[in-house]
Amino acid sequence: MQTHFSRINQSKAVFDDIYALDDPRAYFSVLGDLDYMIPDVAEPVVRQILAAKVSETGAKPTVLDVGCSYGINAAVHRFPLTFGGLRHRYARREMRAIGSETLVRLDRNFYAAWPDVGLARFIGLDVSAPAIRYATGVGLLEQGIVADLETEALSTDSAHLIRSADVIMSTGCIGYVTEKTFSKILDATEKRPWIISFVLRMFPFESLAATFAKRGLVTERLAGATFIQRRFRDAEEFESCLASLAALGIDATGLESEGLFHADLMLSRPEADARAAPLEDIVTVASGRGRPIGPRYVHVDGDDGLQVALEP
Known about the structure:
Helices cover about 40% and strands about 20% of the residues. By secondary structure, the protein is of the alpha/beta class. Strands 1, 2, 3, 4, 5, 6, 7 and 8 form an 8-stranded mixed beta sheet that branches. Strands 9-10 form a two-stranded antiparallel sheet. The chain is globular.
């Protein structure tokens, strides 16, 4: 399955450079220009799932955000902020002119000035040391782990940190990471955590679901709803995504065919928990499809069949 993910990823835009910087300004600029919105459309659903977890245990859970980058999921959950609003903050000329060290100091004060309305404490895992350093430095994550668990073992210190995780979440890393990463995480946990996964529809989830099942977790997919990640960067990425979906027998009509990456929501947890509160009973969705967005790559009928067009 890892090889299959690698093949699919060859058609996706590469943004590695924006995760290797000391602050998130390039991250917000580059992804914001593509109407990146998955943190915003996922947050209400994450909040509902965390509320169900709190109702079950009566305690504030610890969330491990896998592929956390600069801690943006924690930011939009813990504070009355949005990805879009933060993007505009960093786009100001005054914010673009200062050094990273100054920005980190300002951001630490910025986040500390907001009321924390989150339902959980956040720790993070990412391959980017600068991103983890920023997220912990400004107070978005309590602690962070820098590791590539696709190729590395989990260190003793990192395993100890993960041990208490009640919830594991990801909003875009599946496809870059596989069951290898999640197996190492689950081997380190002392509980059977809930796993919230927003997965682009072009990436098969079966191997991950099977890995979770071996550890006593059943997986539910939220039916009747998808979650927009962003626009396609170019026609090549658009066409390649549609080809990947077609190879899986997935109909892209009205979803990816409209020029947007779509993700499914998967929730994996112990069977008793799923029976007590089915996913469809704890989550209601407004997906973000009505949000204003920039030009999109779409298919149109032409004299020579379907053609790619850029729709304003």
